[in-house]
Design brief:
This protein is 50% helix and 11% strand. By secondary structure, it is mainly alpha-helical. The chain has one domain. The protein is extended and about 60 Å long.
């Protein structure tokens, strides 16, 4: 029996609801100078919106709903592709001089980053819990 078999036999871990503070801590890490994404929201906009408890609770509820339903809305998968010319090239006749940049939906990206932050912060505790139990 491998370690992975043992892990799959363990009880399911409960995912605790997100907190407003988790969202505020994650969004602090991002620059206000980001360009608009497909939904025309920048980090600067989200930082302003999330300051107010009346609005941040909606983000928390959406994230909790995604986890509880095991569903990631296609709206969050929306992306926008921009092709940028690399600077200082002698000739612009080759496809190699073009740099594709993919812009993701900001709300989905925020929720993904909150999930990622939680996983990174709690990874060691979760591994110990699984192995001990």
């Amino acid at each position: 029996m491998s370690l992975l078999d043992e892990i799959s036999m363990k009880s399911k871990l409960d995912w605790s609801p997100f907190s407003k503070e988790e969202f505020r801590n994650v969004i602090k890490k991002y620059s206000n100078s980001s360009i608009l994404k497909p939904n025309h929201i920048s980090w600067k906009h989200l930082k302003f919106i999330i300051k107010d408890d009346r609005y941040i609770i909606n983000f928390v509820n959406i994230a909790d709903g995604c986890i509880n339903l095991n569903y990631w809305a296609s709206y969050f998968k929306t992306l926008f592709l921009i092709i940028v010319l690399k600077p200082n090239k002698a000739s612009y006749n080759s496809p190699k001089i073009f740099q594709p940049i993919i812009l993701l939906n900001m709300i989905g990206k925020l929720i993904e980053n909150v999930i990622s932050d939680r996983l990174q912060n709690n990874l060691l505790l979760w591994i110990l819990f699984i192995l001990i139990k």
